[in-house]
Structure formats: structure tokens, C-alpha cells
Amino acid sequence: MIGSRKENAGASRQRHPFAAVWLLALTALGSTAASLIYGFRQTPPGDSYHGFIMLSEDGSQYLAAIRQGAQGLLLFHDQFTTRPVPPIFMYPLYMWAGRLFAPLQLAPAIVFDILHVAAAIGLVAAIWVFARTFAPRNACECRS
User: Fold this and answer.
1) In this structure, is residue 1 part of a structural domain?
2) What is the pLDDT of residues 85-104, one digit of tens each?
3) Does the residue 69 lie in any domain?
4) 94 touches 144 (CB < 8 A)
5) Fewest 10 Å CB contacts: which of 112, 116, 130, 139?
6) Which three-class secondary structure state does DSSP give residue 82?
7) Which residues pair with 88 in a beta bridge?
8) pLDDT value at residue 1
9) Residue 116 lies in domain
10) Longest dimension (CA), the chain
11) What 3-state DSSP class applies to 138?
């Protein structure tokens, strides 16, 4: 009886080894989304919140690139300088994301967040593949 419980627990762990990773990822995503929603809701009327807690200068450039991509531009036009600069090939990921999501007419901040969620999923998957490839299979088992 006791042996069968241990076998069942081991089988359950082997069937769902990725569950803890997904739970951690969803917890991180939920806490990040909660802070963004709070920021958007607490913005006073007449002000704007772009979803950036720090480094908002860079974030404004990324949002501008997404918006310009949604408008069909291929080269980035720097709108945050007083100097006349020609359009350049810069921020291709954001420009193409804007173009890809243009039919949905999403706000640039939403497209930016979608990109970050996709990047986080890709990172977790890459770490998982790396760990499955190079870590011994029994390295995480608890010994009792």
C-alpha cells in the first residue's frame, strides 16, 4: 500500500513535470498584469500612462515604432528630437509587430505587452529545453 502511493506520486510528477514552471510563469504574468492595470486605472484624467514604470524614454520610442509600423512605415522616423534626421532601419521587431497587429487596431502598449508575453514564453521554453538536454533526469528528485 505504501509502495503504491510512492509509485503514484512519482508517476504524477513525471506526467506533469512542467506544471510548476507554468505555475511560476503564470504567477509572474499575473503580478505584472496587475501592476499595469493598476497604473492605467490610477492615471488622472488628461494624463497618459504608457505602461512603463522606469526607462519611459526608451519605451516611448518602442511605442512610436509600433505605431509607425501599424501605419505601414518600414523605416523609423524619430519624432522625439528637434534635429532633422532621415528615416532609418531601427527597431525592426517593433515595426513588424505594429504591422502584423495593425488589422486588430490594438493600442501600441497592448502590442508591446503581447510581445513581452511571447518573449517570456519563449524564454521559459528555451530554459526548459536546455535543462532537459543538459541536466540529469534524477537531479531534482527528493531523497527521503
Assistant:
1) no
2) 999 999 999 999 999 999 99
3) yes
4) no
5) 139
6) coil
7) 76
8) 52
9) 24-134
10) 79
11) coil
Give the mean pLDDT of 75-87.
90
Q: What is the mean pLDDT of residues 124-140?
A: 78
Residue given cell 504591422 in the structure block = 99
Helix ranges (H only) for 72-136 are 92-101, 108-134
CB distance 89 to 77 below 8 Å: no
Say which amino acid occupies 97: A
Residue 2, in any domain of the structure: no
32: nearest Cα among 48, 57, 53 = 53
CA dihedral 94, 95, 100, 104 (to 10 degrees): 80
Q: What is the pLDDT of residues 4-39, one digit of tens each?
A: 555 555 555 555 666 777 787 788 778 877 877 888
Count other Cβ atoms within 10 Å, centred on residue 76.
20
N-terminal to C-terminal alpha carbon distance within the chain: 18
In DSSP notation, 47-112 reads: ----S-SS-HHHHHHHHHHHHHHHTT-SSB---S-SS----B---HHHHHHHHHHGGGT--HHHHH
